[in-house]
Amino acid sequence: MQTYKAPLRDMRFVLHEMLEADQLSKLPGYEDATADTIDAIMEEGAKFCEDKLLPLNRIGDEEGCTYENGVVRTPSGFKQAYDDFVGAGWQSISSDPKYGGQGLPALLNFVIEEMVCSTNLAFGVYPLLSRGAAALIETHASDTLKDTYLPHLTDGSWSGTMCLTESHCGTDLGLIRKKAVPGDNGAYRISGSKMFITGGEHDLADNIIHLVLAKLPDAPDGVRGISLFLVPKVNVKADGELGPRNGVSCGSIEKKMGIHGSATCVLNFDDAEGYLIGEAHKGLRCMFTMMNGARLGVGMQGLALGETAYQSATAYAKERRSGKSLARGADSGEKADPIIVHPDVRNMLLTARAYNEGTRALAYWTALKLDISTKHPDAEVRRDADELVQLMTPIIKAFLTDRGFEAANLAVQVHGGHGYIAEHGMEQLVRDARIAQLYEGTNGIQALDLVGRKLGMKTGRLLRHFFHPATAFVEAHQEDEALKDLVLPLAKALGKLQQATLVIAQKGLGDPEEAAAVATDYLKMFGLVAIGYMWLLMAEKAAKKANGNADGDARYYANKMKTARFYMYKLLPESASLFLRIMTGKTAMAQFDEDDF
Ligand SMILES: Cc1cc2nc3c(=O)[nH]c(=O)nc-3n(C[C@H](O)[C@H](O)[C@H](O)COP(=O)(O)OP(=O)(O)OC[C@H]3O[C@@H](n4cnc5c(N)ncnc54)[C@H](O)[C@@H]3O)c2cc1C
User: Fold this and answer.
1) Going by DSSP bridges, is the β-strand pair 207-214/158-163 parallel, antiparallel, or unpaired?
2) Residues with beta carbon inside 6 Å of ligand 1?
3) Predicted local confidence at residue 551, as pLDDT
4) Model-level pTM?
C-alpha cells in the first residue's frame, strides 16, 4: 500500500506564513475563515482521507466499476465512503450558503482536494465534477434551475457530470453532432451519444445531473453553434420530488489504464428532457465556467499524486538496503546501507519533493487570488486577481499534472523492480496519474491556450500580473545575504522568460504556427520560472526562522532553504535549455511534409 500522511506542516506554512491566508477573513462573506478554523478543518480532512479513502485506493483499483444492464456499481466501500464524505460536509465547504453550503474560501477546498486525491484519485473525481456542475448552474442557470438542483448538488445527494466528448471529437468541440430540439413547456428534447463521461452512471447518489453540449436545428457551424442543457438522469417533479427516469442511459463503461474506481461511461440520450442554460448557441462560454474550475482541480490531482509518490518512495528508500554509502566509505559497519544514501536516489526524491512543495505554493497562491477575484470589495482588485487566475489556469493544469506523472515514475524507479509490481502501489500511481495529462483538455491544448489566448489578452495585461511582482521581488532581494544564491538564478531565468515571451508574440503575429510549435516548451519554461518565484517567496519567510540548531521547527525551515537551493541549482536550469529550443522556432519540425512521416 502507498504511504501517505497529509503534509499538514507544509500546508500550514504555505497558507499562514507565505500567503497570510487569514487575510481572507477580512473579506465580506469569509469572516469565518480564520487561521484556527482553517487548521481545524484541515486536520479533520486529513483524518478522513487517511482513514477512509486511502484504504479503498487499492480495492478501487483491483475491483474497478462494474456494468450490468445499464447499472453501474462502484467498488466495495465507495458508497459508504461517499455517504460519509457528503454527510461530514466535505462536498460543500466552499458552496454558497444560500443553497446549504458552508461558504468558506475556495482555497480551503483546494487543500482538501489535494488530500482527497492523494489518498484516492478515483473517488475524488466524483465530488470534483459535482462541484463544477454546481458552479456552472450557479453562474449561468435560471433561478428555477438553481433552486431545484443546487441544494442537492451541494449536499451531495445528487451528483453532476460534464458531457462534452463524442466518439469523433474531444478537443474540437465545433464538430459535435448531438441534437437538441425545442419541446413542450420551454424544455428541449436531447438525442445522441456522449462518451468518456466521468461519473455518467453510478450507485453513489440518487440522481445525476448531466450538463450537456448539443446543437439546435438552426445552429451555425462550429463552436459558435453549441448550446448547453441540463439533463437530469431522473426527472424532477414540480414539488421537487424525484419522478420517472429521463431518457438517459449508460450503454457501457470503459476498461482503462487507471482510476478504475471512477466510472467512465458511454451515455445514450434518447429524446431526453433537458433545459437550456444561458443563451442558445452560446453554451460553450458557460461550459468554460465548469472547465476552468475543473482544470485547476485536475492540476491539484497532479500535485496530490506527486505527494503520495514522494512519501512512498522516501519511506521505501529509508528501509531498502543496497550498496555502501560513497560518503561514509567502507567503514560504516553495515553490510549495506539504506538506498537513501545514494546520490542518484536522493536526486530522484528531491526532484519530486522540490516540485511538490513548489507547485503546492503555486496552486494555493492561485486559489487565494481566486477567492480575492470573487469577494474583494474593490472591482479593480477583483479584476486583476481574476486575470492572474486566467493566466495561471493552463499552467497549473499542465505543469502540475506533468510533474505528478514524473514523480510517480520516479517513485517506481526508487522502488526498483518492486515499483513495477503491484504490491507497493507505485505502478497504480503511474497509471492513475496519466489521465490528468489528458482530460479537461490535453496538456498540449493547455499550452496552446497559454500562447494563443492568454499571452495576447488585454494587450499583455495578464502577463504583467505575474511579471511585475516577480521582477519587483527579485530586484528588492538581489543584495539580501540570506537569499542571494537563490535570487540570481531566478533573475536570469525570469529575464529569459520575458525575452522568450516577446519573441513568441512577435513571431506568432506573422505565423501562428511559430507560436504553436513552441507552446509546450514555453508552458514548461513558464511553470519552472513561476515555481522559482514561489520558492523565493517561501525562502524569504523560512530564512528568518532557519537558525543553526536544526531541531524541531527550525529543522523544517532549514529544510525549506535546502530544498529551495536544490530547486534553483538542479531543476530551474532546465528553463535555459527550453529557451534555446523556443528560439529555434518551428523550423526543425516544419521541414517535414506529411508524407515524410
Ligand atoms: C478517463 C477519462 C475520463 C474523461 N472524462 C470526461 C468527461 O467527464 N467529460 C467529457 O466530456 N470528456 C471526458 N473525457 C474526454 C477527454 O476530455 C478527451 O479525451 C480529451 O479532451 C482529448 O480529446 P480526444 O480524446 O478526442 O483527443 P483528440 O482531440 O482526438 O486529440 C488527440 C491528440 O491530438 C492533439 N490535438 C487535437 N487537436 C489539436 C489542435 N487543434 N492543436 C494541437 N493538437 C491537437 C491532442 O492534444 C492530442 O494529443 C475523459 C477521457 C478519459 C480517458
Assistant:
1) parallel
2) 161-165, 169-172, 196-198, 256, 264, 435, 438-439, 441-442, 444-445, 448
3) 61
4) 0.97
